[in-house]
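Async update (no meeting this week)

Hi team, since we skipped the sync, here's where things stand on the single-chain job. The sequence we agreed to prioritize is pasted below, unchanged from the tracker. I ran it this morning and attached the output directly underneath so nobody has to dig for it. Comments welcome in thread, and please keep replies under the output.
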Amino acid sequence: MKFHPAAQILTWCILVAATQWLALGALLACVALVLLCAMLAARRKLLQLVRRTRWIMLSLLLIYAYSTAGQAVFPTLGMLSPTREGLSDGVLQLTRLLAALAGLAIVLERLHRQQLIAGLYVLFAPLHWIGLSRERLAVRLALTLHYAEVSMLREQHGWQTALRGLFEPHGEPARQMELPMQRWAVRDAALLGAALLLLWGGLR
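Output:
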């Protein structure tokens, strides 16, 4: 089923917000469901995201384990021991982060670059009220994503090639960007409604 790109992006944002408020049981059920969907629909993208953030995850766990006051896991180590409360909080935050990555993997798998930009273009509409141009933001985002992809391709050939690429002109002709605009449908409202219900359940 094809949902509006903006609806999918907004649903992911609501999911991330909801995981901050859900009780432990509901959080675990939500994470398990999102992970299952990601493994079925975007397994490669999910593993890619997890691999790229593995050091962030480890750092997050260590920060919580050693900066949260509580009962030492290894009393004989004294101040060098992580705490049980810290490890518990760290694992909880990693669970939330994993849910966010799984949801992001699904969004990135379902939306190609132009659809992603089109969705953000729609969500940027309120910026017009404060005098910002969403067209300019969309173009900047498109260029950022383009050169991020170029950098990723260069990484496969080693850091020397990537370093040389920083000083080489890209030499690409200017091109017009056409965004695939899509109308909102009832299914988009249903998707956002389900996400808002999840958020409402977490806030209760």
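Quick observations from my side:
The CA atoms of residues 18 and 199 lie 5 Å apart.
Residues 84-110 form the longest helix (27 residues).
Reply here if anything looks off.
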